[in-house]
Structure formats: C-alpha cells, structure tokens
C-alpha cells in the first residue's frame, strides 16, 4: 500500500496503525444520541472524554442522516455548529476535526473555524461546488458511497455485486477528485446507506477487496440498523457484536473506525495491534 499518512492541514496522521474517529452529533434528532451534545459545553465535555479514551479525530455533524430526517440547508447547519469547532480548537489544539457535511458553504465555514478533514456522505453529488471547495482548502476528503439523492439515500437500489458496484463508483469519483487536485482521499463504503443487511455483511467479509489497497478505508458501522435490527436489539445494545465486526474489518485493512463508543473500540484496536 502506498499510503501511510494523511496531511490534515499540516498535521500528519500516521495510518500504519488504525485510527479512531469519534462521532459528535450536534443535532437534536440523530437516531441514537440526538440532543445530547448540541451545546458548546456538552460538546466540549464529550470531546474531552473521547480524546481521553483514544480518539484521534472528532467528526462533527449538524445534519441527521437517519431515515426520514429533515433536510437542513447549509445556513441551518452553520447555525447549529456555531462556535463549537473554534472552541474545540482552542481547548484541544492538537485534536483533528472532521466536518460531516455535504454542503460546500458549510465546508468553507468549517475551514475558517479550523477543521482538518471533510467527511461528505454524498460523494459530491448533493452540491456541485463541493469538489472545487475541498480542493481550495487542501484538506483530506472522505468519499462515501451513497445513492443519488438525500431522499433516496436509504432506498435499496443495488442489484449488482456490491463490491463491483462500489469499486466502479469509487474509481469514477477518484478520477474526478484527482482532476480537481485533491490528493488525500479516504474511502467509506457507506454501511447502511441503500444496502441490504446481506450486502452490508458482504462488504465486511470482502472489505479487503475495496479500492484494491490503493486508498485508506474508513468503516462506519457504529449503531447501524443492519447490526441491531436482525437481533431485535436497540442501537445501544450491540457493542459486543459491533466490536467483533470492527476486528474483522481491521484484519482486512480498515484504517479508520468511525465510532460512538471510543473506549470499547480502543480495546479492539489494541487487541488487533498486539496480535
């Protein structure tokens, strides 16, 4: 593999060992922790906890992507985020902040506030100016696989082999991103977005066949319904099952795990590294 580091605005992430991205939802309606961290004070406390437990990156999102969520525009996202990014940067100057948005205007705002990565669930499809904006910032870009629109993102639209479909999608998007001069690209298969339970599990089993080892891959399965619904459990009651799947993906080459439960995932990563 030719990738080993990501340049996050001058701070380098060494990907020779897996890293954790802790989730900070500043939304009132996220499916598992909505409303818990949407003030500056509660956000700071939660981030301090996640950093202490081993998170390298904090992923801030102001837009819920659960099924039937209300679509916000970029102005509402920016209002929700407020001073949280700049406050985190002031309080924890070495923490890497990823901004979870599909709006270029929100990226511009986040860049001024100090973000280090852009995490775009839409692969640039929901805002025509996204790639150009990311190129301007020079930040690493998380390219996720998703269906064509915000309102269809959870519909099951993939009939072909899921690995072939994703690799075709990634190769097309990477070519576009390269054309804009975007160098650091992280791939995200988009677990739970427009995929059946069987397809999500196929992605885990064949995780090492994504991107042919050319790009780092982020795995975001934390509290996803394809894990808890078949078991008849709630999103908060599948930690053991989630960590088994995390370990499987680490063994197959996952470089970044995007998680709610940082402490439990740290144990999984430590176990993986020690073996």
UniProtKB/TrEMBL annotation:
User: Pathway it belongs to?
Assistant: Cofactor biosynthesis; tetrahydrofolate biosynthesis; 7,8-dihydrofolate from 2-amino-4-hydroxy-6-hydroxymethyl-7,8-dihydropteridine diphosphate and 4-aminobenzoate: step 1/2
UniProt cross-references to InterPro entries, sorted A to Z: DHP_synth-like, DHP_synth_dom, Dihydropteroate_synth-like_sf, Pterin-binding_dom
| Class of this enzyme | transferase
Q: Specify whether Transferase is a keyword of the entry.
A: yes
From the UniProt record, list the reaction(s) this protein catalyses.
Answer: (7,8-dihydropterin-6-yl)methyl diphosphate + 4-aminobenzoate = 7,8-dihydropteroate + diphosphate
Alphabetically ordered keywords of this record: Folate biosynthesis, Magnesium, Metal-binding, Transferase
Q: For the Pterin-binding domain, which residue ranges apply?
A: 18-270
Any idea of its EC number?
2.5.1.15
UniProt xrefs under Gene3D superfamilies: Dihydropteroate synthase-like
Tagged with keyword Metal-binding: yes
* Known cofactor(s): Mg(2+)
> Span of the secretion signal?
none
Q: Relate the protein's function as given in its record.
A: Catalyzes the condensation of para-aminobenzoate (pABA) with 6-hydroxymethyl-7,8-dihydropterin diphosphate (DHPt-PP) to form 7,8-dihydropteroate (H2Pte), the immediate precursor of folate derivatives.
In the record, the note on similarity to other proteins reads: Belongs to the DHPS family.
- What's the protein name? Dihydropteroate synthase
Q: Tell me the classification of the organism that encodes this protein.
A: Bacteria, Pseudomonadati, Bacteroidota, Flavobacteriia, Flavobacteriales
